[in-house]
């Protein structure tokens, strides 16, 4: 009985993987007709229930879309949508947040060379203006706008890479780190350091100095990496 239950539960997964591989190998374009659910069940010699569950898995991944009176349509999945939907369920502890902080670090450090090389002069100027706005809100102690402008600064920087995927990853991940900014709001020394880091990073990218920009990004990233690591140790201890 246990074996039968196991087979029933893995059948849809096995079929979904076969269908995914077929879509990929046949290089079916976004919007292309695949087949109907009934045709799928017949061709792969499975029950309609198994076919429906397998299709459901691929629909959830964004690989297929069901259309009434038409059938199954191939879709190009959006990895950012999947990450945004799945991320909240993956963050159960401070250790998970620390893992995401390291992912953000890798993305932003890796993006520096691309932003320095691909960013337009206009984008560089906009980055410098965001750094100046960031200074203004810190000096005025407009605490509600500190994280808002920091997010805008880093989002703009990643947009300068020319990659929609990289820029989108920043928008998805950054919401998990907003609480870290509160640590600096009442600390004048940290505020001055943050102003300097943002302005120096913007200037380095404007000057097309990737080595200097990487150094500044590393310094800036250390602040929130240390913050998340400290919270993780506190949770464990």
Automatic annotation (TrEMBL):
Q: Does the keyword Transcription apply?
A: yes
Task: Enumerate the Gene3D superfamilies for this protein.
Answer: GntR ligand-binding domain-like, Winged helix-like DNA-binding domain superfamily/Winged helix DNA-binding domain
Keywords on this record? DNA-binding, Transcription, Transcription regulation
Q: Record's InterPro entries?
A: GntR_C, TF_FadR/GntR_C, Tscrpt_reg_HTH_GntR, WH-like_DNA-bd_sf, WH_DNA-bd_sf
Q: Which SUPFAM superfamilies match?
A: GntR ligand-binding domain-like, Winged helix' DNA-binding domain
> Which domain of life, per UniProt?
Bacteria
Domain HTH gntR-type, residue spans = 9-77
Can you name one GO molecular function term for this protein?
A: DNA-binding transcription factor activity
CDD domains recorded for this chain?
WHTH_GntR (cd07377)
Q: What is the official name of this protein in its record?
A: Transcriptional regulator NanR
């Amino acid at each position: 009985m246990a074996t039968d239950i196991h087979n029933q539960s893995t059948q849809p997964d096995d079929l979904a993987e076969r269908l995914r591989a077929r879509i990929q190998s046949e290089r079916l374009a976004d919007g292309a007709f695949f087949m109907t659910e009934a045709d799928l069940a017949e061709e792969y010699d499975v029950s309609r229930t198994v076919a429906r569950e397998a299709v459901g898995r691929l629909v959830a991944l964004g690989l297929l879309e069901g259309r009434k009176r038409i059938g199954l349509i191939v879709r190009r999945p959006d990895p950012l949508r999947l990450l945004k939907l799945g991320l909240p369920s993956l963050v159960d502890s401070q250790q998970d947040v620390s893992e995401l902080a390291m992912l953000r670090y890798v993305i932003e450090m890796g993006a520096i060379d691309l932003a320095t090389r691909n960013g337009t002069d206009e984008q560089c100027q906009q980055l410098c203006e965001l750094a100046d706005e960031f200074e203004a809100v810190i000096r005025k102690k407009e605490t509600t706008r500190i994280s808002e402008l920091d997010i805008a600064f880093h989002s703009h920087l990643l947009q300068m890479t020319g990659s929609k995927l990289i820029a989108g990853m920043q928008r998805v991940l950054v919401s998990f780190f907003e609480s870290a900014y509160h640590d600096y709001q009442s600390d004048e020394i940290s505020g001055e350091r943050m102003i300097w880091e943002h302005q120096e990073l913007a200037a380095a990218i404007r000057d097309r100095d990737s080595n200097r920009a990487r150094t500044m990004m590393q310094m800036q990233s250390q602040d929130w990496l240390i913050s998340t690591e400290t919270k993780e140790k506190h949770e464990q201890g």
